[in-house]
Amino acid sequence: MKKLAKKVRKRYNKPIMTKPIILTGDRPTGKLHIGHYIGSLKNRVAMQNEGKYDTFIMMADQQALTDHAKEPEKIRESVGDVALDYLAVGLDPAKTTIFIQSQIPELAELSAYYMNLVSLNRVLRNPTVKTEIDQKNFGEGVPAGFAMYPISQAADITAFKATHVPVGNDQAPMIEQTREIVRAFNHAYNCEVLVEPEGIYPENEAAGRLPGLDGNAKMSKSLNNGIFLADDADTVQKKVMSMYTDPTHVNVADPGHIEGNMVFYYLDVFGRPEDATEIASMKEQYQAGGLGDVKTKRFLLEVLERELAPIRERRAEFAKDMGEVYNMLKKGSEYAESVAAQTLAVAKTAMGINYFG
């Protein structure tokens, strides 16, 4: 783990923030799954390695508390799991700042100022917020913090002057709300302090919202219908062999449907260019009859294990020294706070409330 410590020193012993800035992150409410990997993590690693951006990746534990306020121990445990997942997929602390949201008090202060620039009705009209409130079945008991999280997200993005924010298409209204807050702040205080971010959206919509193993619209920790990056090989095999396929495909000789068949959906998402011919042949044979579900699942298992085995091995190696993993998070959070503090200081100067500075 000395290698990890060396990467951390490399990141913070040199000046950065000279390039366009990316801010992204995850709610630490459990281990990350292959939907997270194919939908965002893999792309984050690619952008990190391109070297075009300075990258900040945030564990949004404060946001997680908006609907898990009575389960702080779950979030605390998940922070370590998510950190291991990040490192295992190739996020490099020598190139990327990984930090914990709650350790940056400037974010909460910026949120308080932004709340004065947005009407309650505008926040509650946000399509993403409305959808998520419905999905969580809050009824009349919507936590105020949850309803206001678009404002919190705006603080997260603007504190680091992020120019680009990778999100799914369903998060586009959140980016637009942040842009509105930036314009409102800069207009109200006659300044150009805050930066309007651009969303980076997935080119492959299928990968951007991976369905669950059971065919449910979304892979979800709460529905227990996902394959996790931390799953061992036996667990992955059991999950793949139980995947939803075509309920009308009873016998091998029966013609089958590939639409709505999770095995073929996953093959389209995780297959590499060199797999294209084999996948096309299997689709044709399956639809004509003569190809069983077990054989298609075994092929999918090979495709997934090719991707997951190296991640699993790296994760196990990093897990040997959690002290160093938490040291990485501490150093990242300290650096992130120094950046956010600069933005907050300039914002308060623009607002005229820097009374003693």
Note the main attributes of this structure.
357 residues; globular; Tyrosyl-Transfer RNA Synthetase; 5 strands; mainly alpha
Report what the structure shows.
This protein has 357 residues and is mainly alpha-helical. It folds into two domains: 2-211 and 322-351, Rossmann fold, CATH 3.40.50.620; 233-312, Tyrosyl-Transfer RNA Synthetase, CATH 1.10.240. 57% of the residues lie in helices and 6% in strands. The protein is built from 16 helices and five strands. It has helices spanning 2-12, 34-50, 61-68, 72-89, 105-115, 120-124, 127-136, 144-147, 149-159, 172-188, 205-208, 233-241, 262-270, 276-288, 293-318, 322-351; strands at residues 21-26, 54-59, 96-100, 164-166, 198-200. The strands form two sheets. A three-stranded parallel sheet has the order 1-2-3. The protein has a two-stranded parallel sheet with strand order 4-5. Strand 4 (164-166), helix 10 and strand 5 (198-200) form a beta-alpha-beta unit. Helix 1 runs parallel beside helix 16, helix 3 (61-68) runs antiparallel to helix 4 (72-89) and helix 4 (72-89) crosses helix 15. The longest helix is centred in the last third of the chain and has 30 residues, at 322-351. The two termini are 42 Å apart. The mean pLDDT is 93.
- Which second-level CATH architecture of the largest domain applies? 3-Layer(aba) Sandwich
The biggest beta sheet is recorded as: 3 strands, parallel
Q: Could you tell me how far the N terminus lies from the C terminus, measured between alpha carbons in angstroms?
A: 42 Å
Overall outline: globular
Helix content: 55-70%
Looking at CATH, the homologous superfamily of the largest domain is HUPs
